[in-house]
Amino acid sequence: MKKLVLLFLLLNSVTFGQIQYPIAPGCEHFQEKIERIKCFNAYTADLLKTYFYVNSNVYQYFRLPSLNEKVNFQVGTSGEFRFKPHEGNSLLMNHLASDVFYFFNRIQELSNRKIIPAKTGDGRPAILSFNIPINLPQNKNFKYDNNKNPILFTVPNGNYVVRLGEDYSFHIYKLHELISTVYSIKDFYDHEILKPLTENVKNLIVEKKVKGKIIKLEVENLFKNQQGEIKISYFENEKLIKEFSNMEDFLTSSYSNHIY
Question: What pLDDT, in 10s, does the model give residues 179-198?
């Protein structure tokens, strides 16, 4: 599988007056401001790379397009990452960034290692602002078909069908009636209908009768990125006919016609 490529550039701080720079976990031994800045940048870069590694199968399957935008965020007085959607960013980037900074805070909570917040000249905790450019290059061979609202999942328990929206949202249907829309990966994991999917190694994409045969498509390792690369399998009458190890090959094959 071709992993998402992340280009990370130096963070730029926006400060006024004398202020002590925040200290990231593992950077406590640095005394000089420039060293702390470099270490903080490296810490944040590692978090970002980890986020995209953990979600690399997910973003491949959800057909994430190219993105090249700068995102503003803050480090709060408790060492937490803060982000608010900004009109200067695309809707998709705002949803993505919300997921990213939620992930950053969860990592800090789970590791019990938080950033020591910035301090003013008189020692009070301070909020410091940054920006970070995120560049996800588009795979030129990739087929972006979300304008057709392709089927992502079929949930047999409840007869739900999940389709990808043109804005990369997730539309949940029951008996062809739209009952819910989810806009981010975090909300996907929290949704009562979608959450069970994230706990499975294999998920059903679609199963139906075509020309007298029961055809079925399954996706494997989607939410288990560390266990292996994404795999899509096509069956006819329970017999495995074809396997795909990446979305490019699947979407350009005739088998992908079954998801529309």
Answer: 999 999 999 999 999 999 99
Structure-block tokens of residue 74: 């803050």
Give strand pairing partners of 243. 233
- Phi, psi dihedral angles at 95 (to 5 degrees): -65, -40
CA angle, 246 then 216 then 150, to 5°: 60
Residue 53 structure tokens = 């590694």
pLDDT bracket for residue 108 (50, 70, 90): very high
Q: Can you spell out the DSSP letters for 132-155?
A: EEEEE---TT----GGG--EEEEE
Query: Is residue 61 scored above 90 in pLDDT?
Result: yes
**Cα–Cα dist 153/161, whole Å:** 6
Q: First and final CA of the chain: distance in angstroms? A: 24
Q: What is the pLDDT of residues 162-182, one digit of tens each?
A: 999 999 999 999 988 999 999
Tell me the C-alpha distance between 30 and 43, whole Å: 13
Rg of the Cα trace of the chain? 21
What stretches of the chain adopt beta strand conformation (E)? 7-8, 12-14, 19-20, 67-75, 81-82, 118-120, 125-126, 128-136, 151-155, 160-164, 170-174, 177-182, 202-210, 213-220, 231-236, 239-244
**What is the distance between the alpha carbons of residues 65 and 144, in angstroms, rounded to a whole number?**
8
Give the helix/strand (H/E) hosting 175: none
Res. 3 pLDDT band, cuts 50 70 90 = very low
pLDDT in tens, 12-46: 544 445 778 899 999 999 988 889 999 999 999 99
Distance of CA 218 to the CA centre of its chain: 21
How many residues comprise the chain?
260
